[in-house]
Each structure stands twice: as structure tokens, then as C-alpha cells.
Amino acid sequence: MLRYLRENTGNWIIKFFLGIIVIVFVFLGVGSMNADKHNKVATVNDQVITFSEYRDAYQHMIQRLQQQFGTSLDDELIKSLNIKQHAVNSLIDQKVLEIEAQKLKIVVSDQELKQDLLSVKAFQKDGVFNIDLYRRVLGQNSMTPETFEASQRNTIRNAKLQRMVINGITVGDQEAQAWYSFNNAKASIDYIMIDPGTFSDVFADEAQIRSQYDNHHDLYMSEPKRKVAFLVFAPGDFEAQVKIDEISIRDFYNQNPTRFTTPEQVEASHILIKVDENADEQAVAKAKEEALSVYEKAVKGVDFLELAKAYSQGPSAASGGYLGRFGRTSMVKPFSDAAFAMKAGDISQPVRTGFGWHIINVTDRTPEAVTPFETAKVEIQKELAASRLQDLAYNKAEDAYDAVLDGDSFEQVVLVAAKQPVNTPAFTAMGTELKGMGISDPGEFAAAAFSLADNEISEIKKIGNNYYLMHVLEKIDPELLAYEDVKNEIAVTLTADLKKQAAKKAAESMLQKAGKDVDAVSLEKIAADNHFKVQASKMFTRTEDIPGIAGSVALAQAAFTLDEKNPVYKQVVEVSGKFYIIGLKEKQVPEATAIADNLDTVKLQLETRKQQAYYSQWLAARKEKAEIRINTDIIN
How many CB atoms lie within 10 A of CB 467? Predict the structure, then answer.
């Protein structure tokens, strides 16, 4: 049906039919009725958070998670992390901050935004803002300069608001000293370690193994599986239909001149004498005087590379100020204008930019170069052919999918596609059973198949460069695995658990035997009475692992509850599957000189923590007072 409509849109009957549909939709309110409702994700004091804002926030969160988790990020993990709600919450926070900033008349000037952008290291090349790098970095993150700059303006505004809110929150010397002493106190322990692995006489017998199997069938089920039939539409299937003529190649070449043009470039080094863009006249003049002094040395023949190493305050100083080759738009305009007005071998007088004064040494110039058509045409031909092959494969898949939309069975879809379907063996969600079938990515294929209902036909799925239509033939539910197939696995797991129980019981028994007066009994005696040995640790703080015992922060914290009157911990502590009885060996408090030497750093750290906590409380209070409505229908 859809294919018929597409192919006959010029027919007046079809146009009339489509016109009737449009009129009916208008009168029914489709496209307009409730449009406002469906565009609102939330409101904060009647300030609207739109669906597009929510979508962008959600997508950015997903992108960050993809960078963190890679291929491990799937729908189940996304759902468990509650990303949708987090996206809405972050937008509500931003809206509340925006409202508060408006109340306090906090604004961000264009000059403030410019200065902020110029200072971002990710947009700098050799210490100088690079417009091409700026655009490329934003493009890689699916952002335009307009959207990024609007976001950055909000960030600067929020930072101003935060400074205003936390102003006055400070930390005194006494508070900082106490905090430093608490976090830098050290201790060491004596300990008895009871390792379950030493209980060699403990093992699971047949009755225990059988009981575990009979009482926990849910632990011994097979993985769910699928069987599907699929059609694959590969670009390579259409190679005989694609011929790229000279005219098409020439047209592409003529329509994309910038792609085949290498802009004029200069190769240069520079010496930077920094001065803030908003510095007063005296500071600017002083920096210029310093730059002129270096310039005089350069024009008198002192090696520019050595001068840059000695005087430049930019990040390229160590490499003699070398900037490499760059085009006109790669550097900030004053720098670029000066560099491109110079000849190879010239040294410029100081040039002022937002970063300071630059002395530029142009070492080479490369004129604009155009790749000849004859050189470029082979690559153009390959690119055009690949694009057309991809289009033909997709169009063929779309024709077949139209039959799905028309309600045709998979058998009828196969006839429309005029292709032979492929049947898979039963496979699990990882798709390992599909290897060797020529599927572009078995894991991605399996994931798509598992998202379908029984007997469902998929949408067009692009996997690799190929397009697939899948039809679920059979959903195979998990089944109870045979006892003999899992018996050994159960024996290993159950034995390990029994050994652990025995080790814990032995450790607790040792403490119980010592009785209420355990503090009066030495750890050495407890160990000797039970045929164990005492080990000693090195010094540690309360927030770090005990040396030689991985994952032992909880053990370290237990040690800091001990003192001379209570030298033995009254409970057994489990760490990484082993059990410990511990006694205090030594405690050390930081020396006064160490506290004094670190006081400023500690005050700053503690002040930052207090300010962050206060700011979070302040924001929570503003949200509590705001009238916030969330459209859960959209989120769900």
C-alpha cells in the first residue's frame, strides 16, 4: 500500500485521497490538539521544559555513558540507571537556577563568554584558540557553536550564582586542624587470618549437592534462545547495477571545490608574553615592553628556538614555540592576519591577541593547492559507487518492509524481495552460535532478534553495511538443566560456600573461647591455642586499604575504634572471602609541623566540601518551594 502511494503520488485520485486525509486530521486536531501538552516534559513555576530540551539532555547522558561503558551499555542497564528521570531532574535544576538568576539579575556578557571560550584547553592548539579545532570538537560531540555557546553561557551564569550563594562560607584553623588529624592519623594491627581454602576436609557430599539442585531449580536453567529467518540486503549484491560515469564524477568534483582544495598555509613558531585581555594599560604596556626586548634579540640574530625556550610563556615553549602548519582560520584573527602578511624568514613585531603579545617567526609558506580532477576521480568514483550501492540495498529492503507494513506474512515478504531467506540455529542473546553465518555483527543481530515478539517481523535493521529483516520463528524459553550436567558446577560452588561457613565459625569460636575478658588475652595466645599464627601490618590511615590486604577499608575503620583499653576487636571481620581477628598494635597522630604545613590546603579542601554541601541544600530548598509538574506520560 505504502509503495503504491509513493509510486503514484502524481495521480490526481491519490492526491485527492491524501487531501481528504489531511482535512480529516485537521478537523480531528491531529498535529495540533494536545501538541502543547506533548511538547511539555515539565514545568517549573510555569517555565516550560520542552521535549527537545529533554531529548538533548537524555542523548548527552547516553553519549557519556557509552564512553564509560562501551558495548556493555544496553537497554536494561539504561533502565536500571534511570537515565530518563536523571535527565528530567537535571533540566529542573537548570530551570530553578535560571529562575533564581533572573530574580538576582545575574547576566553573562558577550565579553565574558568570549573569554571563557578562549580559555578552554580543548579548543587550543599550542596555547592559541583554534576555530577549526573548536568546530571539529563540537561536531564530534553533536553540537553546533550556537547550542554550545548558549549552554556555556548558562554554565557561567550558574557559576556566578553559586559564588553568590556560597559567599561567606569559610573554615577556621581549629576545624581544619581537627579534620586533618582525623584523616591522617595512622594505625597498625596484629591479626589472625582464617582462610577458607585451608579447610581441605570440608566438601559437599552427594546429598547436599542433590538438595541444592532440587531446592534451587531457578539457578540451573538454560539460557533463553531464538530461532529466526532473515533476509539480508547487502550493497555488494547490486554491483552489476552500478556504473559511475565521467559526468557524475565531474559534477561531484565541481560541486565540492573545498574538498579538493588545500588552503594556503604558513609554518611558524611564536614567543608568547602573556597578558590578560582585560588587563589595565600599565600591565599591557609592561608586557609589550618585555615582548619588544625579546623581538630585538630575535632580529639581531639570536636563535629564535632558544629565545622561545627561554622567554615564551605559552605551552609550546619547550618545543621552541613551534606551531606547525596552519590555515587562515586556524588561529585567532590578529595572529592569523599578521602571520599571513609575512614572508618566509620574517619575524614580526609583537602582535596583541586575547592571550597576550606574540612574536611570530614564519619559516615557510605553502600556496593554495588544488587536487587535479584526474588525481581525485578514482576516489570519487569509489565513493559515489559505495553510496549508490548502499542506497540500492536500502531501497530493496524498504520495498520488502512495505509489504510488512501492508500486513503481508514473511513468506509474502520473501516473494516481494525475491531473495532466499536464511534460517538460523537456536542462539542465545550473545549470538555466539551465529558465527560463521556471514552476519555482519552476530551480537548486534542477536540483540535485535531478542527484542522481537514471537512471530514478529522486525523493522529494517542496519548491521554493519548490510540491511536485515528478521522473522522470529521460535522463542525457546529457559529449561531446567539435567542434574548430571550441572552436578560438578554445584559441587564446586557448594564446597566453596561450606568452607567459608566453616572458616567463619572457627573464627567466631576463637573469640568466644577468649570470653568477655578478650582484651586481657593476647592475640598471640588466641592464635597459639587454635594453631594459627599472628601477622603484623604496616601503618595505614582510616580511609585506605591495610597494606597487603586488598579491599580492607572496613577492616581499617574497625581498627580505629580500638585503643589501649579495648585493644581487640570484638567481632570477626570478613574481607575478600577471608576472616580476620584483629588487635591494635600502634596508633600515631600527625605531628604539629605536618598539620601546620598542610593547613592552607586542608582549609581549601574542607571549605570546598562545605560550600558544595550548602549549595546542594540551597538548591533543594528552592526546588521544594517551586511548583514543579512532570509529564510522566512522555518520560514513560
Answer: 24
